[in-house]
Design the sequence.
């Protein structure tokens, strides 16, 4: 079988689970892009793909990940082609799509499943939403990410695998098309597989809560946000938004607006802002 996950740390934990159970044997394929942020209009067309790549170039510009878009490391379209080729070469092959209850996984699922409708019967889903697991201390918890689950716990979770239904292929593809056409930049998981959308500045209001009157490194602000905020997103997106805030009169930046450790940021006093 082929396993598909949406976060790099998930690859290792699934591989560890496979090592414990030969019946799960097969390659683990990774969908790398974060479809919970950024442009999605015409995402399956060359123009839509190019627009999204250009957006990511802007997000990473000046950071320590500048140029990563052109390295070819993120090539989700090729992953889809590889899945199709594997299924074409082996009529007994099946695909297990693993997803936890978070916006990143669910948006990745929507992006992927909308391209596989003709492979119905070979695509199965394991959506681990609102399910209890046992952590390393023996306590029950509800994971947000697959990588939070102990490898041995996947041996029980595998029993949840089920084929994606005809209705799901149709309904989920329609829902994803609506999401893509809406043109908004931030997507959140409201529950189940329901995605709601927000404007590009959605996280700004909470991000400024962690900017104080004393100058501190951008990475400290972002780390505080990621640690304390209920809704979070990738640090690259947050850094881009923080750079935008730094250019507003209410804030002052010290250093060069590049990487997370290249500049400090603080709130201006009323008098400083007036000046």
Sequence:
């Amino acid at each position: 079988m082929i396993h598909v996950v949406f976060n790099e740390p998930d690859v290792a934990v699934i591989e560890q689970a496979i090592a414990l159970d030969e019946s799960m044997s097969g390659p683990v394929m990774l969908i790398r892009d974060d479809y919970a942020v950024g442009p999605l209009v015409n995402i399956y067309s060359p123009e839509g793909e190019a627009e999204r790549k250009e957006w990511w170039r802007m997000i990473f510009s000046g950071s320590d990940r500048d140029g990563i878009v052109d390295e070819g490391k993120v090539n989700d379209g090729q992953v889809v082609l590889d899945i199709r080729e594997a299924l074409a070469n082996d009529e007994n092959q099946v695909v297990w799509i693993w997803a936890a209850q978070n916006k990143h996984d669910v948006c990745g699922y929507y992006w992927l499943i909308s391209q596989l409708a003709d492979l119905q019967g070979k695509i199965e889903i394991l959506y681990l939403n609102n399910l209890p697991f046992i952590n390393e201390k023996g306590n029950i918890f509800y994971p947000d990410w697959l990588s939070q689950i102990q490898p041995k716990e996947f041996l029980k979770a595998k029993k949840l695998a089920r084929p994606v239904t005809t209705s799901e292929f149709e309904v989920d593809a329609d829902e994803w098309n609506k999401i893509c056409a809406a043109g908004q930049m931030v997507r959140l998981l409201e529950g189940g597989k329901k995605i709601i959308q927000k404007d590009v500045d959605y996280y700004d209001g909470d991000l400024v809560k962690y900017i104080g009157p004393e100058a501190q490194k951008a990475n400290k602000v972002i780390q505080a946000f990621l640690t304390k905020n209920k809704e979070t997103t990738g640090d690259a997106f947050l850094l881009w938004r923080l750079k935008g805030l730094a250019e507003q009169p209410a804030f002052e930046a010290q250093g060069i607006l590049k990487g997370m450790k290249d500049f400090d940021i603080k709130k201006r006093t009323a008098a400083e802002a007036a000046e």
In short: The mean pLDDT is 95. The CA atoms of residues 2 and 22 lie 13 Å apart. The first helix runs from residue 8 to 20.
